[in-house]
Structure formats: C-alpha cells, structure tokens
Design goal:
This protein has a five-stranded parallel sheet with strand order 2-5-8-1-9, with helices on both faces. It has a two-stranded antiparallel ribbon with strand order 3-4. Strands 6-7 form a two-stranded antiparallel sheet. The longest helix has 16 residues. The protein has two domains: about 190 residues, P-loop containing nucleotide triphosphate hydrolases (Rossmann fold, 3-Layer(aba) Sandwich); about 80 residues. The protein is built from 14 helices and nine strands. The chain is an alpha/beta fold. Helix 9 packs across helix 10. The chain is elongated. The structure holds adenosine-5'-triphosphate and magnesium ion.
Amino acid sequence: MIESLSWHLRSFMGFDMATFQGTSTYIASAELSEIVNVAVDLQKPLLIRGEPGTGKTVLARAVAEAMSLPLLTWHVKSSSKAQEGLYVYDAVQRLNDSRFGTGNVHDIKQYIKLGPLGQAFSAPHRSIVLIDEIDKADIEFPNDLLHELDAMSFAIHETGETVAAKQRPIILITSNAEKELPDAFLRRCIFHYISFPQPEEMKSILRVHHPHVEEKLVEQCLLRFYWLREQNEIRKKPSTSELVDWIGALVRAGVSIKCLEKELPFLGVLLKKESDIQALKSGAKRPTRY
Ligand SMILES: Nc1ncnc2c1ncn2[C@@H]1O[C@H](COP(=O)(O)OP(=O)(O)OP(=O)(O)O)[C@@H](O)[C@H]1O
Ligand SMILES: [Mg+2]
C-alpha cells in the first residue's frame, strides 16, 4: 500500500524515478529499497537507524555501487564539528609557510581543505555523502548543518567564495540513537528504521557472505542464532555481522551440524560480554525453533 502510494506520488511529480533494489552483496528489504528511492527522488537526506550490525553503514556503499556514483564518507566522532564537513582552514600550515618562507601565503585557497560535504557540493557530478554515526557528536552538530542541508551551499569566509552544489548530493545519515536528534534536523530528513532481519531475509544475507556453505548448516546456525537472541539473560544480543563471522569460524574449523545441536562453539564470536557468556552457561536450554 505504502509502496504503491509513493510510486504514484513520485510518478505524479514527474521524477525520473530511482530504482535501488540492493546489490549482489547487499540485501535490501522492500521497505528499505523503497525509502531509499523516495529519499533520492525527493532529494532529502535519509536518516537510518537500527541495531548495531544491521547494515546501516554498508547501505551507503551499496547505494553508491547501484547508482554508480562516488561515495564520500564522513565518520563522525565525539569531537567532530559540523564545519569540518564543509571545509577546514589550515592556519597552522600558513603560519609555518610564512615563518619558513615556503609556499605562497598570499594564496589562501591552497590552505582551504574541503570536507566530504564540501567536496560533494563542489564536484561537477552527483555524489553520495555518508554521515556515519551522527549521534556521536554533540547536539550542536546536526543543528549547525541545517542551513547547508537546506541551501546545499556554504560560504568560505577566508576567501569570500560561495560553494553551491551543482547537483544536490544524495545524503545518507546513520545513527545508533545514542543521543536524541533535534526536531528541526529530523524535519529535514526522511527516516527509516532497519528492522532486524527475519530468518528468510537473514538466509539471503548469509548467502551473499557464504555462498558455498551447506544449506543444512546455515539452517542449524539460524536456529541457534535466533534462539540465542531470544534468551532474556543476554543483554548484548548478537547481530547480523556476528552471525556472518560465526558461520565463517564454524566453516573454518569444520564444525558439524550434529555438534551444533549440542554446543555453541566460538561463543565469543557471537557474545561480546563476559556476563552474557556466563549467564548463558548457567541457564542454557536447547533451542527448538526460530
Ligand atoms: N543487508 C545486508 N546485506 C549484506 N550484508 C549485511 C547486511 N546487513 C549487514 N550486513 C553485514 O553486516 C556487517 C555490518 O554492517 P554495518 O557495519 O553496515 O552495520 P551497522 O548497522 O553500520 O553497525 P553499527 O551500528 O555497529 O555501525 C557488514 O559488514 C555486512 O557484512
Ligand atoms: Mg555503522
């Protein structure tokens, strides 16, 4: 229903519709594909949330690959400032050049280093910008980007130049919800929560990573994995990335399906907290279904 509505909206508005559907290495659900296409068509940033390891970061790579566009990644840290995504003025280098007589200190342009957003705005072609883990920075970070995301332009004060996007970049933003994002910022984005994959979707994801692993072994791993996630005593539940690694470890060691029925080898690949491992060992039951 939602899919067909958005299709009608997009065709009514006369867009040349985007058709992202995942790639050979990234399995995107119908809802995720649809929301990516809507964000691309409406030229709005797409904010992605979801459990750790559910493919938020690699989504940007998949969209870039599917659309054959360059990807510029901005890994946000607790110390990151919004300005750094646009440009940084290297005053220290200029000072050193003036002290040691190196470089042309009158050419301020050479001391301006564009950040990922700045590079995307100034590029002659369309790019994809991933702003990864926006919630790592302080609350001012998203607020400070509001104007640039609206106008898709910014001024370089040191040179008096204005950089305006020739083609609006596709902006993908990920968040682990460590902090609430401001309402004004949310208003400018389209939002999607990546739900944890159901077993059938997970099977397709595993096929991408382990194409040659026996079907029966994959089934047994899924059974154990979803059982593990259901255990209430486990606080940090294993995610897609842990399952991918776990199957890799099992295959490498030649673990049999029979053994998996009784044991969980390489538990440290799935559980990353000592308390979870202990809790599981003391209250372990046998899985019956997933
Ligand atoms: N839909 C998918 N298709 C293919 N591989 C996937 C998918 N989802 C997750 N993965 C695998 O899981 C790994 C983790 O994905 P990614 O780093 O994008 O997770 P994340 O959601 O960004 O996690 P975090 O919140 O910890 O940063 C990827 O390297 C990829 O191998
Ligand atoms: Mg990530």
